[in-house]
């Protein structure tokens, strides 16, 4: 066979199932080509675009050290290249959820190659489970996380490392051409950095994970999301490490494993119900009359809602491409409940900005907050952004780290500054709607409105 190996979001040289496949099947391969399709991120934030390019460049450099030069083309040119190279087969990662555009996902890519008479071989690369192997006794996907977790946790086992020699791959691979205008000289290997950071987390912060997972004033989380999104690390490598260290600290390791299984749960659901990417998972909410208030949406995006915890979180996202999970819950509830804006708007904004964007986790995260998802937060348990702020940023460190204006202001004023307008003006010279916005909605009023909207659908 003439095999093209599509290197999309599997940007790692170690633990790479695509390379393992080649070594296992090398006797069947007559010609081998590595192909790296570049994603179009023109509508993504600069921070996200830069990170993607850094990862790709680092990976191409790492391959080059092993004497492997892939063809580098845009997605649009893949079919043309398949014809030029007379490919009979392509090897494609079939479980990637972090692609930037839907047309880069497996079903679309598979169809595109098949239209060019190329046979597609799908391979697991970035998730642990094969979706159908996680099903319940009725051969249906679990729709409640706890049941999924209980049923599948026991199947996490140590995966033996399968070695491959790059010199074997380089010997049989044809050299490719860089058809992009990216310059690939001297770039940092982010795979190495990712493995180093992960090791540091295991030697340090995981010890606080279970207790402090929701504390946004300190960062005790792993930052693993972005490494998994670009395939810099394999989830099986992560699980191996977690199982190896497990006995030393069961509570924290189990807490972490539970979160990683969340990612698998949403992945399985997304493969079975792809329509949930744009439609409410719960059918009864599909005709909900959401708000499409652009002024409110802009204020949310820019971090100008008058609720400091929301504003600081959005500023952090815009500045760094990252947001802590508790803050993702707070800002998504604020958008879909307090502002009653269609969750797909928020989902799309996160897609453009989150470096660790993952379609399955993001869509289901948003639908959890909007109460339209499976196993979602009940609509009557709406977050109060002020209480959330007091509870999870009690000393105000996070808010102060993003909103300069509040740096010298005592903490008790900053969770709900609109309430202390006159004191803030008199003592700290903060003028509302000039230096900082008045809150754009009243929490109690919006809560009443939202409850009525949801109740009117649930009464039938
Ligand atoms: C509205 C909303 C949108 C989200 N969008 C994304 C997204 O686009 N990409 C993404 O990877 N996660 C998303 N999440 C889940 C979660 O917020 C992130 O996985 C986490 O914050 C990433 O940071 P970390 O790696 O430091 O997390 P850690 O706390 O260190 O967790 C380790 C890993 O566990 C997994 N994980 C943890 N929490 C969740 C969760 N609730 N759902 C699914 N997987 C989880 C992730 O793979 C994460 O990297 C979203 C959550 C919400 C509420």
Poorly predicted regions:
none
Shape: globular
Estimated radius of gyration: 24 Å
Small-molecule binders: flavin-adenine dinucleotide
Q: Could you give the order of the helices and strands?
A: EHEHEHEHEHHHHHHHHHHHHHHHHH
> pLDDT average, as an integer?
96
Pfam family, one: DNA_photolyase
Cofactor: FAD
Family: Belongs to the DNA photolyase family.
Domain Photolyase/cryptochrome alpha/beta: 1-128
Report on the architecture of this protein:
The chain has 460 residues and is mostly helical. 48% of the residues lie in helices and 6% in strands. Strands 3-2-1-4-5 form a five-stranded parallel beta sheet, with helices on one face. Helix 1 links the parallel strand 1 and strand 2. Helix 13 crosses helix 14 and helix 15 packs antiparallel against helix 16. The longest helix has 23 residues. It is globular, with a radius of gyration of 24 Å. The mean pLDDT is 96. The structure holds flavin-adenine dinucleotide. The site of flavin-adenine dinucleotide has 26 residues, from helix 9, helix 11, helix 14 and helix 16.
Task: Characterize this entry briefly.
The protein is built from 21 helices and five strands. It is mainly alpha-helical.
